[in-house]
Amino acid sequence: MATQLSHVAQQDQRSQFHPFTSINDLKAEGPTVMASGSGVRVRDVNGKEYLDGMAGLWCVNLGYGRQEICDAIAQQSQRLSFFHTFNGMSSDVVAECSEALLARAPVPMSRVFFGASGSDANETQLKLIWVYNNLRGKPEKKKIIARWNAYHGSGVATASLTGLPGMHTLFDLPKGPILHVSAPNYYRNAPDGMSERDFSRQLAKELEALIEREGPDTIAAFFVEAVMGAGGLIPPPEGYFEEITPILKKHDILLVADEVVSGFGRLGTYWGSQTYGYEPDLITSAKGVTSGYFPMSAVFISPKVWDVIEAGADKVGVFGHGYTYSAHPVGAAAALAALKLIDDLKVVENVADVGPYMMQSLRDRLGQHPHVGDIRGKGLMLGIELMQDRGTKQTFPMANRTGRQVLKAAAERGLITRALGDTLVFAPPLIISRTEVDEIVDKFALAVDDVL
Ligand code: PLP
After folding, report:
1. Helix 434-451, helix 401-412: angle, nearest 10
2. Is the CB of 61 within 6 Å of ligand 1?
3. Which NCBIfam families match (predicted)?
4. I need a labelling partner for 78 at 20 to 30 A (CA). Which of 278, 323, 351, 385 fits?
């Protein structure tokens, strides 16, 4: 992106160890350093403007520089900059935020547990699930099933849960009681001619076979993203959740909805589970809860799980889990402002309108391109898979190279996208207008033409 490295880019390059970044690429190209943002746009230190087609990392749902959230953060920082929630302590704004979140849950929920990231929230989920089964007198029921290509975080346990081998190798992660089943990738993995519904049945059979092989009494929970994000933007095939959920119920297995990306409107309903009609026992949320203005996560605990924990209170004693920044008052203030804006600005309704418009525009513009294999997604979570030959679904010989080239060409044209291998992804701020979507599609189509 930047050809001549600015002073700050050099500073960054020699001092920061970047997450999820190729050390070689960073050395060769230097970082792109942002300096400001407003609405759907950000500006780098050289003054170049970009339309942020990724809302940061699928999180700045309400756009940059939103005055109401900035004011809420500033005022809360002055009034009570920190207080904790250990040992029964709390703060007024946290109490209000907890209730506001429960009021927005897709199904009745009993409690929220706060953290600072999606990863720590999923670590909390694992502990809750294990406590739940210990208290129910089912100490063997501890294994967790996730899916290949899932992304559930970067912690030691949550990276194991994540179904991306690149996050397992080299890190010596303890395998733990974690199992994976196939990703519901219809485009890539369904046999030729098989319907989506039949593919869903096949995936459900695979899941049930694994449960039976391992023993249902050993399986505690199944983790799902509504649409898989970081693992390649994979929406479920038709009927997927309808096929899966009865199996989980039959074998007394908890359904954990990881709504870190899909929560708070991204798919055109408030929660991803509402788009696909399933009822989670536990929900993980983060990112959009503060629109990325403050690091915060919230785990939602259903009555089914909470009642067991509450009934076991004597055994539990002091619940031995939590983070210094669990329920940070400044985060709670940011969340309250963000939740109000989601309602006031009719953000979910906007996604329900603009999402299908963006999908159609991408299909109209790129659907026949010889190197565009698949355009997929839901709401404002869309992916375009590039390939050598769309007819045979032949991928490019060097994985990731073409995707990165298109990403760079788009950046040259002032558009931020993300390359997950050769799938380019869009998850723009949810307040985006149709005109701004037109700009994304124009710039992106030109970037594809620049490279292919
Ligand atoms: N779960 C999902 C579905 C995610 O996409 C992410 C991050 O992108 C996480 C969990 C982890 O969140 P964090 O990066 O805040 O730890």
Report:
1. 120
2. no
3. PRK06105.1
4. 323
Task: Provide the domain limits for residue 446.
Answer: 32-62+346-451
Which atom of ligand 1 is closest in space to residue 297's alpha carbon?
Answer: 15
Ligand 1 within 6 A of CB of 286: yes
**Is residue 15, in this structure, part of any structural domain at all?**
no
ipTM metric: 0.99
- Separation of CA 289 and ligand 1 centre (Å): 13
Q: How many domains does the chain have?
A: 2
Q: Indicate the residue among 315, 344, 373 that finishes a domain.
A: 344
Residues in the chain predicted with pLDDT less than 50, given as ranges, are 1-2
The answer to whether residues 382 and 317 belong to one domain is no
Atom of ligand 1 nearest to the CA of 230: 5
Q: From ligand 1's centre to the CA of 260, what distance in Å? A: 6
Distance CA 269, CA 229 (A): 17
Asked whether the beta carbons of 162 and 153 are under 8 A apart, the reply is: yes
Whether residue 209 is found in the same domain as residue 357: no
Say if residue 410 is in the same domain as residue 442. yes
Of 300, 322, 344, which marks where a domain is finished? 344
- Flag whether the pTM goes above 0.95: yes
CB neighbour class for 90 (10 Å; exposed up to 12, middle 13-18, buried from 19): middle
**Based on the domain organization, do 150 and 44 belong to the same domain?**
no
| Pocket flag, ligand 1, residue 117 (CB < 6 Å) | yes
